[in-house]
Design a protein that fits this description.
With 380 residues, the protein is of the alpha+beta class. The protein is 40% helix and 17% strand. The protein has 3 domains: 112 residues, Tetratricopeptide repeat domain (Serine Threonine Protein Phosphatase 5, Tetratricopeptide repeat), CATH 1.25.40.10; 145 residues, no CATH class; 78 residues, Alpha Horseshoe (Serine Threonine Protein Phosphatase 5, Tetratricopeptide repeat), CATH 1.25.40. It is built from 13 helices and 8 strands. It has an 8-stranded antiparallel beta sheet, with no helix packed on it. A hairpin with a 2-residue loop joins strand 1 and strand 2.
Length: 380
């Protein structure tokens, strides 16, 4: 039986698409420091339902506004426990996928020793300048730093103004990883929330700055929704939602060929999970037409060919995947499975190569045990 590995999320850039999807799980690097004594998510956690969120905030009627196909619920600084402007973002299925806390005048971090120690251990992912509200001379600028941390499934970002001696928190965001591109505090629409306005004079004086999406927001949002469902970021896989999301992303589309290729790849995996193998084959071949040398797509196409009984095509796909990436453990295992009957000697070599590559990876424990069993049987 051939195997595929779960597709990994896109974290920070389109470039991650080239390395992220379907690759064998490497030994996890140590997680970055993330301890904090500033508890902003007191009554809420990511992946909560909208109903659960509202039940945790009795007596508060948040302002609702559209967020693409989803919804943003905003709590004013006067009502919030954090004393900042709080925003909670729900996808169209009513799942909390990201939160944003905005402190327009800056939250003094002096009382939060643990968080300050964590920030001191992190390398800023971005540095830029803002004009602080308290200074009338616009030539007086203050450095701002964006820090990234988190765990296996979520990302936390802090936008901090000032140096380590007197840091002030401007924005904090929390999101599940598939949506991380949509929740950078350096996005223009979020930086704009820090601006000095007639209603609130304690904001920052900002020149026009911040990132703007090059791809349609609707496509990015639906792609993230598909990943969340396909990879069980909120507890269980839901292929119905994943397929719906990727199809919707296809309607709005992407302009970049890497995004286009990865979307058709994901659609292929979703159609396979739905049992429509011919549609899955069509999408995976379309992905390869846009990005011919993708080991992940080749490996997944090989598993599909195996299900369709196209053994020679399956083997050819696995061989090309391994040729492009010799240390691709899962493709090595799949190739061994494909040739075990016809060429047991070579199969043993491929199984043993897989075992060397997968050594020490907890997620590969079951497959490692199976490979060891296969090697023992083939040698005897």
């Amino acid at each position: 039986m051939y195997h595929r590995l779960p597709l990994l999320p896109i974290l920070f850039s389109v470039g991650a698409l080239l390395a992220g999807c379907g690759t064998p799980s490497p030994p996890r690097p140590p997680l970055p420091p993330s301890e904090s004594d500033l508890d902003l998510l007191k009554a809420t956690k990511l992946c909560d339902s909208r109903k659960t969120f509202l039940g945790a905030h009795p007596g508060i009627v948040p302002q609702s506004q559209a967020w693409g196909t989803g919804e943003e619920l905003r709590i004013s600084s006067e009502q919030s426990l954090s004393k900042g402007e709080e925003s909670y973002f729900f996808d169209e299925d009513g799942t909390l996928v990201g939160t944003l806390f905005v402190f327009r005048s800056g939250l003094d971090l002096a009382p939060y020793k643990t968080l300050r120690r964590t920030l001191s251990q992190l390398k800023p992912s971005l540095e830029f300048y803002l004009t602080v509200a308290q200074l009338a001379d616009r030539q007086n600028m203050a450095g701002s730093m964006l820090y990234d941390t988190g765990d296996e499934k979520t990302t936390t970002r802090y936008l901090v103004l000032g140096d380590q001696a007197t840091p002030r928190l401007l924005v904090a965001s929390f999101t599940i990883d598939p949506y991380v591109k949509l929740f950078s505090p350096y996005r223009k629409e979020f930086l704009d929330r820090l601006r000095n306005t007639a209603e609130q004079a304690d904001g920052q004086y900002l020149d026009s700055q911040g990132t703007v999406d090059k791809e349609p927001f609707a496509s990015l949002q639906q792609f993230a929704r598909g990943q969340t469902a396909q990879l069980a970021y909120c507890g269980t896989k839901n292929n119905v939602i994943a397929l719906d999301a990727y199809q919707k992303a296809s309607v709005s589309g992407f302009t970049n060929k890497v995004w286009q290729a990865e979307l058709t790849h994901r659609l292929g995996v979703s159609w396979e999970a739905a049992g429509n193998l011919e549609k899955a084959k069509s999408e995976l071949l379309a992905s390869l037409a846009k990005r011919p040398n993708s080991p992940e797509v080749l490996n997944n196409l090989g598993t599909l060919y195996g299900k369709l009984g196209e053994k020679q095509n399956a083997l050819a796909s696995f061989e090309k995947a391994v040729l492009l990436r010799p240390n691709y453990a899962i493709a090595r295992f799949n190739m061994a499975e494909a040739i075990a009957e016809a060429n047991p000697k070579r199969a043993v070599t491929e199984y043993e190569t897989y075992l060397a590559l997968a050594e020490g990876i907890p997620e590969e424990a079951d497959r490692t045990a199976l490979a060891q069993k296969r090697v023992k049987a083939l040698k005897h």
